[in-house]
Design a protein that fits this description.
The chain has 166 residues and is an alpha/beta fold. It has five helices and seven strands, in the order E-E-E-H-H-E-H-E-H-E-E-H.
Length: 166
């Protein structure tokens, strides 16, 4: 598994950026080059816990933007599943960040559940030089709870040192 100090992998992935017919975009690590970014991953679309996590990240989006930090969510579901989920769930319709189809990236990060191959809950904070500053992986929804990554981003930016993994 990717850990603190490792370079975040280069990636290209299809992403859902809205709910309209033209809201599927190809995103890559180049889109986040030279920027702080929080990448968070959740197990599956259309589950009962995951929308609360996504909605919480959206509620905190201004706090991330105030820290000049991009937010990207993702799972091993494809971009069309992400779009249909967003269209069908009121809390997800107006997300201000992309949901990527992270099948390859999740494998590169080492965050796939070993039996069924879905994403474990994980959050990575990446600095402008693509160094992983914070890495959390676990099964609890609290692992990717939004307020902690927001505070950790502030801490990593302020200290210039690598945060520890938890």
């Amino acid at each position: 598994m990717l850990t603190v100090g490792d370079s975040f992998p280069q990636f290209t992935a299809q992403a859902c950026v809205g709910t309209g017919k033209d809201d599927i975009k190809l995103l890559s690590s180049k889109d986040y080059a030279g920027k702080w970014a929080v990448f968070f991953f959740y197990p599956k679309d259309f589950t009962f816990v995951c929308p609360t996590e996504l909605a919480e990240f959206n509620k905190q989006l201004k706090a991330f933007k105030d820290r000049d930090t991009s937010v990207v969510g993702g799972s091993t579901d494809n971009e069309w599943s992400h779009m249909m989920w967003r269209r069908s769930h009121a809390d997800l319709k107006d997300l201000g960040y992309p949901l990527i189809a992270a099948q390859i990236l999740a494998a590169d990060l080492g965050i796939l559940e070993k039996t069924e191959g879905y994403c474990l809950r994980a959050t990575f904070i990446v600095d402008p030089q693509t160094s992983t500053r914070v890495a959390w992986v676990g099964t609890s929804p609290r692992c990717s709870a939004c307020s902690t990554p927001c505070r950790a981003t502030s801490s990593a930016r302020a200290t210039g040192r690598r945060a520890t993994r938890t």
